[in-house]
Design brief:
The chain has 162 residues and is of the alpha/beta class. 51% of the residues lie in helices and 14% in strands.
């Protein structure tokens, strides 16, 4: 059913909820799991920082992303799931879409929410961009915290009317 599954991660526990689902999918289908974490490209946003400092910061970001994804890959290897690590640079949404196309993945599995506070409140802008832009199947995983905090419409309107 699945040969390749792309799992974009941002380093947050909320994003890692997708890994639980991917473990089940990959074990059942024998799919290869592509773990992706985009690292922002050095853009010179701080003019006072020189190119050398910018390059070092980017290299440190790539090293941290690689080490993080290697920990997830080790977790997958422990249950006999094959995985590869991808650490592209640039905008996360664009990097996810480019990797999905280049690697010809069968499915993208990602969390609806990432590590930022605003992203936790609404469907994450990266997830939204991926869902509305790709033609590939996308499985969105809601974090448990979001499930527990849900309110029924009636509860909200009843509180306003009182």
């Amino acid at each position: 059913m699945f040969n390749k599954i792309l799992v974009p991660l941002d380093g947050s526990a909320l994003a890692e909820r997708a890994v639980d689902q991917v473990e089940k999918m990959a074990m059942g289908s024998g799919a290869e799991v592509l773990l992706l974490r985009a690292v922002p490209a050095p853009l010179g946003k701080a003019p006072e920082a020189g190119p050398m400092e910018e390059s070092k910061a980017f290299e440190d970001g790539v090293n941290r992303a690689t080490a993080y994804l290697e920990r997830i890959a080790t977790r997958l290897a422990a249950i006999a799931v094959t995985s590869r690590i991808l650490v592209p640079s640039g905008d996360p949404g664009a990097a996810i879409l480019a990797a999905a196309h280049k690697e010809d993945v069968d499915c993208v599995v990602m969390s609806t929410h990432g590590g930022t506070a605003l992203a936790r409140a609404l469907l994450g802008s990266t997830a939204e961009k991926v869902v509305y832009t790709t033609r590939r199947p996308v499985m969105l995983v809601k974090p448990e915290k979001i499930h527990a905090a849900r309110f029924e419409e009636g509860d909200i309107f009843a509180g306003v009317a009182r």
